[in-house]
Amino acid sequence: MEKFNSPTLATMRGKAEVVLFPTSTEQTSAIVKYSGSMAVYDEIVINLSKMNKIHSIDQDSGAMVCDAGCILQDLDLHLSDYDLTMPLDLGAKGSCHIGGNISTNAGGIRYIKYGSLHGSVLGLKVVLPNGQILDNLSTLRKDSTGYDVKQLFIGAEGTLGIVTGVSILTHKKAKYCDLLSMDITLNGLEKTNPLAKMHNYYVFIETQGSHKEHDLEKIMGMFEELQEDGTIEDGIMAEDITQMAKIWELRESIITAHSKYGETYAMDLSLPTSKVETIVNDLKDFLEGLGVYDRTLSYKSSPKYVKEVTGFGHIGDGNLHLNVIVEKYQDSFTTTLEKFIFEYIQNLKGSISAEHGIGLLKPDFLHYSKSKEAIELMTIIKNSIDPKGIMNPYKVLPSS
Amino acid sequence: MEKFNSPTLATMRGKAEVVLFPTSTEQTSAIVKYSGSMAVYDEIVINLSKMNKIHSIDQDSGAMVCDAGCILQDLDLHLSDYDLTMPLDLGAKGSCHIGGNISTNAGGIRYIKYGSLHGSVLGLKVVLPNGQILDNLSTLRKDSTGYDVKQLFIGAEGTLGIVTGVSILTHKKAKYCDLLSMDITLNGLEKTNPLAKMHNYYVFIETQGSHKEHDLEKIMGMFEELQEDGTIEDGIMAEDITQMAKIWELRESIITAHSKYGETYAMDLSLPTSKVETIVNDLKDFLEGLGVYDRTLSYKSSPKYVKEVTGFGHIGDGNLHLNVIVEKYQDSFTTTLEKFIFEYIQNLKGSISAEHGIGLLKPDFLHYSKSKEAIELMTIIKNSIDPKGIMNPYKVLPSS
Q1: pLDDT, tens digit, for every residue of A160-190?
Q2: What's the whole-number mean pLDDT along residues A43-56?
Q3: Strand order from edge to edge, sheet including A319-326
Q4: Which tens digit of pLDDT belongs to each residue from B174-209?
Q5: What are the chain A neighbours of B349 within 8 Å (beta carbons)?
Q6: What is the CB neighbour count within 10 angstroms for residue B362?
Q7: Is Disulfide bond found in the keyword set (chains A, B) (predicted)?
Q8: Chain A residues close to B352, C-beta within 8 Å
Q9: A54: helix, strand or coil
């Protein structure tokens, strides 16, 4: 578990005495049947890392069928042999399982181009709470026969069943971070600024085309236009894959770099693109008002409790990662911060979890992003599919 | 109701004595509450054509919020003022409601570019069977808080609730039809072939780019390559919007033209792209084996019961519209044809409804495309959300 996924994760420990590593859907089903009949809660962790085979790749349609325990980066690597690529990419790609990506409805940096997993996932194999295996591993692009039940499991965080197999549409990549994110990253990691000087905001754009000269002409045209009208001050274009990787490394190291200067409250918010800058400034005002932060001081030497407030994310789809670096996590500050942020987001009709799910920490805050009726409907679905409540208990839905 | 949606629709008549035209979600809710408490079935048709307002268009994100009764073509026309376009387009655009598109999980000709409605729909407002209003009209691109309950209503054909409001992601179009489809269309509509002579297969490709010269260069390059390697025999490129509309008209008139030569069994199938040609030929073999068809005779003068078998559709996403023109619909032939097609599709793990839903006609055939477990899960969801069974009864799920 990563410290940075959430403010209070630092205090979380698993209590399971048993971790099982099934090698097949049938074994997973047998485990669920057993634990269901025993009505034991919180005792079994099922790790699917041994279910990591790719079963088929259809080069015509791009449909790939694989086990849920496959690691995202391994899939992308394998697909590159077929000139294909995954519809999602994220910082944790070297360790995250595709099944976990689906269960948490992961977003990531290709979202703006390929859209959500609700569109990309073609089928799932799921072990239901009663041990039944729902084999829905369709490779069809289109299917309008009945309710699209697989959609329920995308983002359900395992509370309705265990995703063991995945059919996903693959394909043949924009980003934002502010001055402080960049400054912290360069200092924390002792990296060199690829631009001549520091600027207030940085945008990462990755394009993909079929014709190098055309692509170059278009991007250079855009640069010139944006520079002429004053939208951008400076820019750099990667000249090869190596340079591209170096630039991306900066973006992917932001959170790691934050850890050099304290403990970080890392929030994953969805809000209108026009409010992405506003919320960062409003939070700074709020924290200064509390006397715990001073924006004129450097995060390297500030004696205040809050060292710095930074924002970065996916500007194209309104997904802001908002970070507060503090000396040390404190429950009272957590409460204050959450109240401010969640109310702020509720007023904007935003979401308190854009791409990392609800998990154990946010169920009681679900009402900030979802209506009473929606939560009731979720509860009806949860109770009807998992009447014994054995699937990933205490997650997602508020305890009644 | 259109004759061509299905073989047996010609014999279908509605029996409702009351058609209501609510002008708001609240009125719709009041109707549902009333009919729920009365437990009257099959008596009320709710027509949302008076709920046809666009509420907001966000030019930054492309999110549009509108009433479910808006007509697809009107939405596209209105969006064009903002340089935006709908993520779906289909032949019925001049009359179909966006709410109906969503309830039937409509596909259409932009699917290959923009993907499924499960990815494009950002939020829905739904009147639930108990009259509750689920207001889920989010305009967020990303939201991972809990089950994505709106997904259940996409393609549920009204059996779980009535979609009254829609939030959808708009954006700033490939097709296939065989010789006989083209021949029937040209003859039936007395149109001129845009190419010098007839060919076995026709592909319609619509591209969209930001740079006219680049786009032209690429498409001409593709033409040359495909002609050199013998993939294509001839081609024509629309020189302006008028000519483009004329070419598209041919594609969109195929079904209308079929009606000049008899009654048409029109099937909407999803199958691997590599099998699209095979199934047409296998069906011809099957019908010739039965003695009801002779492929050497012209559909204009054949004395056989089956005049012609044609295939057209969306080759890019494996969606084939397979058509059998007969003298007159016959129940015994319907049974024979359905058995052949549904078993064929089941063997290929295809779907018997790619983009037109299940409706009243196909519930008993659902098992050809969905597993026992999936149908059980759909039934659990249906029963838990609509315990009285008042929403669009007898549709989608097989009667138990």
Answers
A1: 899 999 999 998 744 556 777 888 888 888 8
A2: 92
A3: A201-204, A175-178, A306-314, A319-326, A263-270
A4: 456 677 788 888 888 888 888 878 888 998 887 777
A5: 138-140
A6: 23
A7: no
A8: 145
A9: strand
Of A116-125, B82-91, B378-387, give the range with the top mean pLDDT: A116-125
> Dihedral through CA A379, CA B386, CA B121, CA B134, nearest 10?
-60
Output the DSSP codes for A191-218.
PPPSSSS--SEEEE-----S-HHHHHHH
**What spatial distance separates the first Cα and last Cα of chain B, rounded to whole Å?**
27
Give me the mean pLDDT over the A11-22 stretch.
72
For residue B351, what are the β-bridge partners? B270
- The CA distance from B215 to B211, in Å, is 6
Distance, CA of B86 to CA of A391 (rounded, Å)? 39
Q: What ipTM did this prediction achieve?
A: 0.76
Q: Is the pLDDT of residue B286 over 70?
A: yes
Interface test with A, best of B118, B138, B145, B213 (most A CBs within 10 A): B145
- Give the tens place of pLDDT for each residue, A280-313: 999 999 999 999 999 999 999 999 999 999 999 8
Q: Residue B211: what pLDDT?
A: 80
**Phi-psi sector, A42: left (phi>0), alpha (psi -120 to 50), beta:** left
Query: What is the DSSP code string of A81-110?
Result: TTT-B-S---GGGGT-BHHHHHHTT---TT
CA dihedral (B64, B67, B69, B70) positive or negative: negative
Which domains are delineated in chain B? Answer: 3-169 (3.30.465.10), 175-251 (no CATH), 255-364 (3.30.70.2740)
Token pair, residue B107, equals 């596909």
Amino acid found at A22? P
Q: How far apart are CA A80 and CA A68, in angstroms?
A: 19
Contacts of B317 in chain A (CB under 8 A): 61, 141-142
